[in-house]
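Entry:
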Amino acid sequence: MEILIKLVIEFFVIGFFSYGGGLAVLVLLQERVINLGWMNLKEFADVIAISQSTPGPLAINLATFVGFFQGGIEGAVIASVAVVIPGVVFSMIIGRFMEHFDENERVKSILKGLRAVVIGLVATAIFNIALVTIFDIDSFKKTGSITSFFDIKACIAMAIFFVFTFKLRKSPALLIIAGGVVGILLGNF
């Protein structure tokens, strides 16, 4: 029961401060989940990959998976609902008043500042995921070799999928499926 209460509190707070949606919430969610000892960084990166590969918004998927790992099905439901409630309430309030303020210069300035923060949060999330995905810091510490600092397979896969995404404009859904297949074919990344 104690874990369920903790899930409600933590995910309500995460939902409350989740301006910017999925990727922007990663840093806050990562910080809380790791500091609470619910997951380590590698486990969290794996949950991000699963959350990105399943239907639905990232923040809700993350809440569902973390909630499930901590409190079973009840934890999944509670964490998912708790992370959504603040956004629903804010959306209803802001939606009601936004039409009156969309030309207001202060509102435009606030939104511009918030967008900049979101970019910083997303960049931080990408960096943190890269630390456990394409960089092998433990191997580098053991060997001291710069070549052991990078996971070459992961770097090559990332570069290929980057090209497919930006140059060839391939569907993200197809790329997610292809990433899973590549992972199976190449073995343990």
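Residues 58-101 form the longest helix (44 residues).
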